[in-house]
Amino acid sequence: MTRAITLHDVSKAYTRGARVVDRLSLDIAPGEFLVLLGPSGCGKSTVLRMIAGLEDIDEGLLFLDGEYGNDLPPSDRDMAMVFQNFALYPSMTSRDNIGFPLRIESPGTDPAPRVAATARMLGIEDLLDRFPAQLSGGERQRVAMGRAIARHPSAFLMDEPLSNLDAKLRNHLRAEISQLTRELGVTTVYVTHDQSEAMSLGDRVAVLRGGVLQQVGTPRTVYSLPNNVFVAAFIGTPRINLLRGLVRAPLDGAMTISLGKQFLRLPEPLSLDHQLLRVQQGREVIVGLRSEAVRIAKPSAARPGEVALTGLVEHLEFQGHEVLVHFNTGSRPAVVPELEAPRPGPDRPARRRRREGTVLERLRERAGALRAGPVVTPAGPGRPDPAPAPAEPRVAGDLIVRTTPDIRLRHGMQVPLLVDLAHLFVFDQHGERICPNPERLPGLEE
Ligand SMILES: Nc1ncnc2c1ncn2[C@@H]1O[C@H](COP(=O)(O)OP(=O)(O)OP(=O)(O)O)[C@@H](O)[C@H]1O
Ligand SMILES: [Mg+2]
């Protein structure tokens, strides 16, 4: 048995007036694997804890299988939680750790058969008689999973269950969790701040920012059609290139987006999406180019829909199978503040006063402010309009492009680039996507 979980306009404030979850609505289907993704402090764990019944819901409604569930005690919700710090009982063997919740739930029943079946499923039969201190991190996490699974819950709630593990083990267990939850067909809500984890695990990903849902969709949709600049910047590696542009749409000439020293000339005839940009004439916009939208090639090699730019090589990141080239194109980067330097939002009190930060944090803040240049603050409900842009420093390396390692590049080289305008994103001053136009979704599945 597995559950549908519905949140309807759910809000939570720990201190009066400061909502850490703000009117969140989500429909999670039975058997679905939904990932809650967002930066630290955006309210992910709070949402999970409200679903589990460990935290009261201040406003809004929770439905479990369509039934009102706000006041249901945690024990009646039939959900199993897996936390970051596995919280195994140190004085119990794996066998007892897994069997413990079963004993509590049905005191008269021998948990041994279920413990054995669970251990078989997780491949941990040989670990059953060991204590947590005798297990590696990954083994401990498997036992913790076993404890959750053995109960046959109707939903799993997982709060960053892998973040204490090293990268290799994390990848391995990630695949196991994905396979296991699918096999069991149990609704799973999985919290992480790691976008690649979210993308590889989720049937759908819900992106949170400052307690507000930004977008929920398949990994493919949130990557290829991000609702706003925050989602675009949070999802994808390397980070999407965000450049400040100015739309020029003269009545008697070609439409362009000026990027400081260079411009993108929109190919004619204009696509419908580009035609719709005309209303932005004379306005500042944010241009988003994922690294795959730009390639190193001469203008003569341009395919239909590609336009030329040039870039000065400022930095090369060798990654083995590819090289990330940081170009200076003379553009001005636009930056999403919370993704650059951890700073509190306008309606959230600072966890720590600024002057109390470590030297490193203060340096990072200063660097963030310097690098940030003009700041993009998508105006959400109750949020003030973005502050006027501060003075604009020239920033090195405004465009990152992926290339194969066989291309020989050196610092200071001027290199021809082609931008594929089929992959062009444009966001308005508030950071909302305006191209591709939100009204006209290409045939992507949701
Ligand atoms: N018990 C509490 N009392 C007061 N404030 C709290 C409490 N728990 C969480 N908060 C605040 O609520 C906000 C959301 O916290 P939450 O733990 O849900 O974030 P998160 O997205 O899970 O972050 P992380 O990725 O760091 O775990 C944070 O600003 C946090 O400081
Ligand atoms: Mg958390």
Output the keywords.
single chain, 446 residues, alpha+beta, Rossmann fold, 2 domains, six-stranded mixed sheet, 22 strands, 24% helix, 28% strand, binds adenosine-5'-triphosphate, binds magnesium ion
Describe the structure.
By secondary structure, this protein is of the alpha+beta class. The chain folds into two domains: 5-224, P-loop containing nucleotide triphosphate hydrolases (Rossmann fold, 3-Layer(aba) Sandwich), CATH 3.40.50.300; 241-435, no CATH class. It is 24% helix and 28% strand. It has helices spanning 44-52, 94-105, 112-122, 137-150, 167-184, 195-201, 219-224, 229-234, 272-276, 337-340, 359-372; strands at residues 5-15, 18-28, 33-37, 59-64, 67-68, 79-82, 155-159, 187-192, 204-209, 212-217, 241-248, 256-259, 262-265, 284-289, 294-296, 306-318, 323-328, 332-333, 399-403, 414-420, 424-427, 433-435. The strands form four sheets. Strands 11, 12, 13, 14, 18, 21 and 22 form a seven-stranded antiparallel sheet that branches. The chain has a six-stranded mixed sheet with strand order 6-7-8-3-9-10, with helices on both faces. Strands 15-20-16-17-19 form a five-stranded antiparallel sheet, with no helix packed on it. Strand 1 and strand 2 (18-28) form a beta hairpin. Helix 2 (94-105) runs parallel beside helix 4 and helix 3 packs across helix 4 (137-150). The longest helix has 18 residues, at 167-184. The relative contact order is 0.13. The chain binds adenosine-5'-triphosphate and magnesium ion. Adenosine-5'-triphosphate binds at residues 14, 20, 38, 40-46, 193, 348, 351.
